[in-house]
């Protein structure tokens, strides 16, 4: 957090190379969020540039209340979400059983996503199924399982309640397990 403060102050003071350092530090996170939302390389590149332009324009509003990573992630998510809304692409698949389980019941379903990736055939099937997910579920899954962003930070990035994120993760893992079992037979 102290490094965040130093970097932000350097960028705001227009120190040579400071903004480039910020971009290098967070371009991977920005790319992952936007790419998982829009899945089009040209759009992703353009939207990443737009996200960092907004970061540059609005950095003076950053108040150090959350990690800089979360704040930049929130900007990237917002840019990608607006892009999908402009193109009228739904970002979430609505479940019929939305209220069937309480958020506490949805925290874990016992499915070990990482263990499922151990086998190459399963990993290929899992990758294909992840790519077929709606943008929000794909992004949440990527942030939580691949980027290892804590649920609290994902909530800051997306503006979603923690219980909603847990619910999406639970339903997404259940959907992946079901589709992989149908594709490859019982493996879990």
TrEMBL record:
Residues 126-176 form the RNA polymerase sigma factor 70 region 4 type domain. SUPFAM superfamilies: Sigma2 domain of RNA polymerase sigma factors, Sigma3 and sigma4 domains of RNA polymerase sigma factors. Residues 22-88 form the RNA polymerase sigma-70 region domain. InterPro entries: RNA_pol_sigma-70-like (IPR039425), RNA_pol_sigma-70_dom (IPR014284), RNA_pol_sigma70_r2 (IPR007627), RNA_pol_sigma70_r4_t2 (IPR013249), RNA_pol_sigma_r2 (IPR013325), RNA_pol_sigma_r3/r4-like (IPR013324), WH-like_DNA-bd_sf (IPR036388). Keywords: Sigma factor, Transcription, Transcription regulation. The keyword Nuclease does not apply. It holds the Pfam family Sigma70_r4_2. Belongs to the sigma-70 factor family. ECF subfamily. PANTHER family: RNA POLYMERASE ECF-TYPE SIGMA FACTO, RNA POLYMERASE SIGMA FACTOR. NCBIfam families: sigma70-ECF (TIGR02937). This is Sigma-70 family RNA polymerase sigma factor.
